[in-house]
């Protein structure tokens, strides 16, 4: 029979994998709201997410104290506000891209994110890079260069999504809060602005609720649930699987998005984009191999000692 640790790891991998798969399907949800302003959709996500998460934090025995400590700590408060603004910016760009026919470009952004994390680790956190990591980043830069010089445009959607998400990750790495308490704090700090924006759009007659569609109203109201459920699933899984496994599972989301954009939404994808994506995917393959090898090297002394 499998041990308890193996069972927990299997459940964690399933939970994390399902969260990434769900995130990959997000374009299907947000496309249903393409007639609504992305700014208003972000306000809905922020407000309803905060209202869903706050009771969990207040009554949670292990997480409630983190939220109370964050409110009284100026550094944590300021870092949470900044990370919340980065998250809202990332969400806005993503929803705008999806609802304007750029699902493939948005998936490319999340393919670039791990390599952007490596670059930021070097420049911001002063982490040393291994040779294969430099090669991986170089392959990604070559892919971006192909889009810039052969396609004639800078892939700003992909770069801005990767950049904002990576910077958000840097702040989360420095945060003393866990994933769920951190998101709760971020959404709470932005909730007054989100509520004010929604009230103003209702007063001006520009809100989704003014369109007279119960279907759109329902989609807007459940946006918070759509945001928090995969996060809770991810938080459960991340505590139970190895970092290398989590790093591999994260490719599920942009892969699903890419396939949706290519085969379901039939977005244009010429040979130049293929060449650029192949370079970026080669970089990701090198990054993944390097991550597994580095973790295996770290674990080897423990295994040999046993």
Q: Mind explaining what this structure looks like?
A:
The protein has one domain. The protein is an all-alpha fold. 80% of the residues lie in helices and 0% in strands. 41% of the residues are buried. The protein has 14 helices and no strands.
- Shape, please? globular
Q: Give the averaged pLDDT, no decimals.
A: 83
How many structural domains in the coordinates? 1
Number of strands: 0
What is the tally of helical segments? 14
Q: What amount of the residues lies in strands?
A: under 5%
Tell me roughly what share of residues is in helical segments.
over 70%
- Termini gap: 22 Å
Oligomer: single chain
For the largest beta-sheet, the strand count, sense and barrel status come to: none
Structure classification = mainly alpha
Query: Uncertain segments of ≥5 residues (pLDDT<50)?
Result: 302-306
Quick structural overview:
By secondary structure, this protein is mainly alpha-helical. Helix content is 80%, strand content 0%. The protein has one domain (4-305).
Structural key phrases:
single chain, 306 residues, mainly alpha
What is the strand and helix layout of this fold?
Blueprint: H1 4-24, H2 26-30, H3 38-59, H4 64-72, H5 74-99, H6 103-123, H7 131-149, H8 156-174, H9 179-203, H10 214-221, H11 223-238, H12 243-249, H13 252-264, H14 271-305
Helix pairs in contact: 1-11, 1-13, 3-4, 3-5, 3-9, 3-11, 4-9, 5-8, 5-9, 6-7, 6-8, 6-13, 6-14, 7-14, 12-14
């Amino acid at each position: 029979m499998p041990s308890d640790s193996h069972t927990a790891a299997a459940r964690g991998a399933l939970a994390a994998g399902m969260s990434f798969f769900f995130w990959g399907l997000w374009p299907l949800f947000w496309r249903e709201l393409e007639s609504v302003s992305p700014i208003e959709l972000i306000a809905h996500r922020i407000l309803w997410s905060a209202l869903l998460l706050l009771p969990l934090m207040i009554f949670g025995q292990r997480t409630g104290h983190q939220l109370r400590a964050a409110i009284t700590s100026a550094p944590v408060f300021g870092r949470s506000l900044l990370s919340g603004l980065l998250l809202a910016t990332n969400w806005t760009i993503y929803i705008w891209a999806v609802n304007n026919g750029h699902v493939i470009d948005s998936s490319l952004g999340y393919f670039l994110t791990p390599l952007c994390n490596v670059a930021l680790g070097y420049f911001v956190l002063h982490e040393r890079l291994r040779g294969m990591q430099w090669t991986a980043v170089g392959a990604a830069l070559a892919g971006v260069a192909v889009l810039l010089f052969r396609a004639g445009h800078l892939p700003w959607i992909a770069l801005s999504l990767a950049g904002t998400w990576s910077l958000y990750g840097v702040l989360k790495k420095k945060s003393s809060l866990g994933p769920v308490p951190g998101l709760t704090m971020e959404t709470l700090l932005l909730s007054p602005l989100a509520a004010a924006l929604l009230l103003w759009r209702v007063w001006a007659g520009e809100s989704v609720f003014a369109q007279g569609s119960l279907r759109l109203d329902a989609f807007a109201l459940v946006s918070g649930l759509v945001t928090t459920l995969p996060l809770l699933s991810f938080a459960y899984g991340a505590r139970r699987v190895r970092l290398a496994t989590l790093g591999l599972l994260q490719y599920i989301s942009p892969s699903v998005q890419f396939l949706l954009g290519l085969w379901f939404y039939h977005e244009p994808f010429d040979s130049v984009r293929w060449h650029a994506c192949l370079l970026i995917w080669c970089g990701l393959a090198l990054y993944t191999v390097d991550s597994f090898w580095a973790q295996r090297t770290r674990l080897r002394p423990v295994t040999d000692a046993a």
